[in-house]
């Protein structure tokens, strides 16, 4: 991308993901749902005779200390995916992201490449459930919220100009 296009993409991504994150945390503290670790460990006192507690269950890593619903990662990643799709004019994004691994938690040691926005979001849902942080419906709700914020903003901001500062 040209420098100006890159700056524009970064500005869009920053604004949209920040606003999606704020909407997400507003929802988290409105609904205040418990996380899987709390639900699973306390299933014996949830009033449902069909559930049983597993007091030793733990997620793969330390659970974030804020409410579960909706998934903040779902909100922000979905919003950013919409920005990428908007920037390239297609849901075929062919995007590669760097990330950390258990062996190198503070370094960018691995990559994941996604052909489409849907590929990215499908993996996001599974990853947040499999790590033990979220229930599936919470990640899907987060993605929906992030997509809604992104679409609203992308229809109103960062529009083409008429070349005269309009």
Could you explain the architecture of this structure?
The chain is mainly alpha-helical and 166 residues long. It is 51% helix and 6% strand. It has a two-stranded antiparallel ribbon with strand order 1-2. Helix 1 (3-31) packs across helix 5. The relative contact order is 0.19.
Helix and strand topology:
Layout lengths: L2 H29 L4 H6 L30 H17 L6 E5 L10 E5 L2 H14 L5 H19 L12
Antiparallel strand pairs: 1-2
Which sequence of strands runs across the widest sheet?
Answer: 1-2
Could you tell me the number of beta strands?
2
Distance between the termini: 23 Å
Share of helical residues = 40-55%
Low-confidence stretches: none
Major sheet: 2 strands, antiparallel
Q: Overall mean pLDDT score?
A: 92
Radius of gyration: 19 Å
Order of helices and strands: HHHEEHH
């Amino acid at each position: 991308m040209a420098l100006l296009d890159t700056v524009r993409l970064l500005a869009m991504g920053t604004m949209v993901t920040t606003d999606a994150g704020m909407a997400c945390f507003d929802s988290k503290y409105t609904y205040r749902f418990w996380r899987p670790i709390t639900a699973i460990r306390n299933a014996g006192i949830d009033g449902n005779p069909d559930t049983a507690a597993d007091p030793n269950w733990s997620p793969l890593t330390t659970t974030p200390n804020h409410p579960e619903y909706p998934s903040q990662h779902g909100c922000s990643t979905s919003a950013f995916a919409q920005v990428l799709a908007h920037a390239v004019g297609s849901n075929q994004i062919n995007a590669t992201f760097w990330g950390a691994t258990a062996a190198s938690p503070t370094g960018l040691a691995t990559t994941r490449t996604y052909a489409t926005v849907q590929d990215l979001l499908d993996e996001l849902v599974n990853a947040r459930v499999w790590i033990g942080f979220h229930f599936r419906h919470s990640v899907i709700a987060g993605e929906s919220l992030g997509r809604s914020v992104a679409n609203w903003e992308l229809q109103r901001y960062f529009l083409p100009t008429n070349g005269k500062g309009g």
